[in-house]
Every structure is written in C-alpha cells, then in structure tokens.
C-alpha cells in the first residue's frame, strides 16, 4: 500500500493578465504549499477503480478528481491494473485552497509508482494540466510563480516555515462563478508581482506580508461581504498580512511561525467559520510505502 499526503496551497498574489481564446483567464500568481494536507491510501486491486472518502461533501465516483486522475492514467497508459483509494479529507472543500487539485496530483504521483508506469515528471505535468488549472502546481509544490492558466511554473526560492491562519467562512463560492463575475466587474486591483518575487528572493518576510494581494478578492467580496469582516478580524488578531486565497472564500493571515499562528487563531471568534493554523511547506506531495508492501 502507498500513502500520499496531498498539501493545500495558498495564493500570495493573484493577478489576471488577460483572457484566453477558450474563456480561461491568463494568470500571474505566486503560489505557496502549506502543511495542511489530505491523506490518501492506495491499495492494489486486480482491476477497477474504487474510491472511498470520509467526506460527506464529496462524490466517490467519476466526478471526484481522484477518480478522474486514476482513470486518465489508465486511459493514456493502457494500464489494466486496479486500485482501491481511501481519501481522508482535511482541506476545506471549494475554499480556494486547491484541495481537489492536490488530491488529483497526489493520485498521479502515487499511481505512477504503484502501477510502475515509469512516467516522467514532464509527462505527469501534461496529464496534470488536463485535470485542472491548479493541478500542475500541486505536483511541484513549494513557492512558485505560475502563469498561463496556472501550468507555466517558475520555482522561487523557498521561504522559511511561516505560520498561516486560515479562516473559511461557510459560503459556497464556485471558482467558475467567481471568474464569470470578474469578467463583469473587472476590478482595478492588481498585485505587484515583480515586487513579491523580489521580496521572496531577498527572503524579506515583512515585504512578503505587505505585498499580499488578490485581484479576485473584490469580486468574491462583492458577492459575500462577510469576507471583509474575516480580513478585519485576522488583522485585529495580529496577523502580519492578510488576503483571500484563490477564488475564496478562505482568507489567510501570515505569522512569524506556526506557534504565533496558533496564538492568532486563538484570538478569533469561532463564529467566523472554520479556523485552522498551519505553516509554509517546501514540497507538495509526500509518498510512503506502508505495511511493508506496495
Ligand atoms: C482561482 C484558482 C487560483 O489558484 O484557485 P482556486 O480558488 O480554485 O483554489 C485557480 O485559478 C483555479 O484553478 P482550478 O480550480 O484548478 O480550475 P479549473 O478546475 O481548471 O477550472 C474551474 C473554472 O475556473 C475558470 N478558470 C480557471 C483557471 C483559469 N486560469 N481561468 C479560468 O477562467 C474556468 O471557468 C473553469 O471552468
Ligand atoms: N477530491 C476532491 N476534493 C475536493 N473537491 C473535489 C474533489 N474532487 C472533486 N471536487 C470538486 O471540486 C470542486 C473544487 O474543490 P476544491 O479543489 O476543494 O476547491 P478550490 O478549487 O476552491 O480550491 C468542489 O466543488 C468539489 O466538489
């Protein structure tokens, strides 16, 4: 059996730089893996894909990105081996934290090993992009500048394990809906991505905190004004810098380290939503053989 830890992401900056012919948005975003993770266990079966999850929010059939990743691998490689997958979900769902993308990336990496497919990292990245815009980043992880739909990746210098407080208000915001609303509102807020990249290069944590910015934040806030209240609460609780992640609704605050993040989280009103604290992480997926067999 093979265990995979699939890490969530946050967007330190997110800018939209154009519209692509297929309606997707051209992005420039600095993405960061965090230690918060889902856990997947892969057990070989003679044939068929069987998925089980402890999340009542998720399907266990072909609508699940894990199932789709396994099916895609079978289709492109002609592999006839099967697998049973158990997905233990910790990353808030549809929250701007890339949980589904992380699970899909972990499935590609794990089944490449379990089924001895021998696909290269480049081949896996091509498959990842077919599954979703955030999936390529989730294969690579760390601190990365992503462009295009999210698949053109430039790794940046790893940041220290800064603390992160995540607050996910109980809202249903679909990524597609937020991008559609962006097209209507065209907000004028743009992060200074080159300055963020330079701050990361200098390992200048106060500058990183000051430069957090997300073009989609005013869009999500226009639909769900509660997001502004969460930002204010995180600032008042002592976060160094605060911004919404991805299409939201999760808002995160940065702290010096995880211990400080725990203190900030403890000062928040639990009524704001699901509150978690974690830290930056320099890789996306951790694979381990368990029970001594593969
Ligand atoms: C906004 C971001 C920022 O990291 O993250 P989340 O909020 O989802 O975590 C990503 O761009 C989300 O990536 P992901 O969730 O993988 O997107 P996909 O499944 O490929 O696409 C969902 C929908 O988002 C829109 N979409 C996505 C990516 C992109 N560059 N342009 C788009 O317009 C499309 O309408 C698409 O139908
Ligand atoms: N394994 C999975 N984990 C989370 N969401 C999944 C998964 N498979 C499919 N989905 C669907 O993908 C959508 C986006 O989920 P998620 O990746 O958690 O959020 P986001 O795109 O905001 O980061 C959800 O509506 C969910 O139903």
Please give a quick description of this structure.
The protein is an alpha+beta fold and 294 residues long.
Describe the structure.
The chain is α+β, with helices and mostly antiparallel strands. It folds into two domains: 2-156 and 282-289, Ribosomal Protein S5, domain 2 (2-Layer Sandwich), CATH 3.30.230; 163-279, Alpha-Beta Plaits (2-Layer Sandwich), CATH 3.30.70. Helices cover 34% and strands 30% of the residues. It has ten helices and twelve strands. It has helices spanning 65-77, 99-114, 121-131, 135-140, 175-185, 193-202, 205-210, 217-223, 226-236, 258-266, and strands at residues 2-19, 25-45, 49-53, 82-88, 143-148, 152-155, 163-168, 213-214, 241-244, 251-255, 274-279, 285-289. The strands form two sheets. Strands 1, 2, 3, 4, 5, 6, 8 and 12 form an eight-stranded mixed beta sheet that branches. A four-stranded antiparallel beta sheet has the order 9-10-7-11. A hairpin with a 5-residue loop joins β1 and β2 (25-45). α1 (65-77) runs parallel beside α2 and α2 (99-114) packs antiparallel against α3 (121-131). The longest helix is centred in the middle third of the chain and has 16 residues, at 99-114. The model has no long low-confidence stretch (mean pLDDT 96). Adenosine-5'-diphosphate is lined by residues 58, 64-66, 93-101, 103, 175, 246-247.
């Amino acid at each position: 059996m093979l265990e995979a830890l699939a890490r969530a992401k946050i967007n330190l900056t997110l800018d939209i730089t154009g519209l692509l012919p297929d309606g997707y948005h051209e992005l420039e975003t600095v993405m960061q893996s965090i230690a918060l993770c889902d856990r997947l266990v892969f057990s070989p079966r003679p044939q068929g894909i069987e998925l089980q999850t402890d999340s009542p929010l998720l399907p266990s059939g072909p609508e699940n990105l894990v199932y789709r990743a396994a099916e895609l691998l079978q289709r492109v490689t002609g592999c006839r081996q099967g697998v049973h997958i158990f997905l233990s979900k910790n990353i808030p769902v549809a929250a701007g934290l890339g949980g589904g993308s992380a699970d899909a990336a972990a499935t590609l990496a794990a089944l490449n090993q379990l089924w001895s497919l021998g696909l290269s990292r480049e081949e896996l990245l091509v498959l990842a992009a077919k599954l979703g815009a955030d999936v390529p980043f989730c294969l690579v992880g760390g601190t990365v500048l992503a462009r295009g739909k999210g698949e053109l990746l430039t790794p940046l210098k790893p940041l220290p394990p800064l603390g992160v407080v995540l607050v996910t208000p109980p809202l249903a915001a679909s990524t597609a809906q937020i991008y559609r609303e962006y097209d209507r509102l065209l907000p004028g807020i743009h992060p200074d991505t080159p300055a963020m990249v330079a701050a990361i290069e200098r390992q200048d944590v106060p500058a990183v905190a000051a430069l957090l910015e997300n073009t989609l934040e005013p869009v999500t806030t226009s639909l769900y004004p509660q997001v502004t209240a969460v930002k204010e609460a995180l600032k008042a609780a002592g976060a160094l810098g605060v911004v919404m992640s991805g299409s939201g609704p999760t808002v995160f605050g940065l702290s010096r380290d995880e211990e400080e993040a725990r203190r900030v989280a403890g000062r928040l009103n639990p009524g704001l939503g699901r509150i978690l604290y974690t830290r930056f992480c320099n890789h996306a997926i951790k694979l381990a053989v368990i029970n001594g067999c593969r």
